[in-house]
Amino acid sequence: MIRQALICFLKGYKFVVMDVPLLFEGPMHKIMQKIVVVHCDEENQIQRLMLRDSLAESEARARIQAQMPIEEKRKRATHPVDNNGDIEETKKQIHRIIDEFEASWLPVFIRAGIFTVIIALCLPVIKIFI
């Protein structure tokens, strides 16, 4: 995933979306600049999980209890998205985040810094052949 993200970065993409359900359970969150967490209350989560995976309520609750609490994930997010409402409200929140990411100049500055370092490292070698 990191290699693919780096390739996208070098190709000029402004941002890359990674779907990582257990992001905070491992070290990967430490290298993420922005983290979007889509959350809803536990009852909605249970109902949606039961419907999606054909689970009994006890199985859905057990699955949720096996994970980091959603409230903790929400607190760690740079961009929490409340998914308790209808799909249109969730889409509006996501579009606002996309607009913010698209407007950011930070990827351009990072890319310029990386290319400056690469050129500075290669310049002595280039001078040999000139």
Automatic annotation (TrEMBL):
<keyword id="KW-0547">Nucleotide-binding</keyword>
<keyword id="KW-0812">Transmembrane</keyword>
<feature type="transmembrane region" description="Helical">
    <location>
        <begin position="108"/>
        <end position="129"/>
    </location>
</feature>
<keyword id="KW-0472">Membrane</keyword>
<dbReference type="InterPro" id="IPR027417">
    <property type="entry name" value="P-loop_NTPase"/>
</dbReference>
<dbReference type="GO" id="GO:0004140">
    <property type="term" value="F:dephospho-CoA kinase activity"/>
</dbReference>
<dbReference type="GO" id="GO:0015937">
    <property type="term" value="P:coenzyme A biosynthetic process"/>
</dbReference>
<keyword id="KW-1133">Transmembrane helix</keyword>
<dbReference type="Pfam" id="PF01121">
    <property type="entry name" value="CoaE"/>
</dbReference>
<protein>
    <submittedName>
        <fullName>Dephospho-CoA kinase</fullName>
    </submittedName>
</protein>
<dbReference type="InterPro" id="IPR001977">
    <property type="entry name" value="Depp_CoAkinase"/>
</dbReference>
<keyword id="KW-0067">ATP-binding</keyword>
<dbReference type="GO" id="GO:0005524">
    <property type="term" value="F:ATP binding"/>
</dbReference>
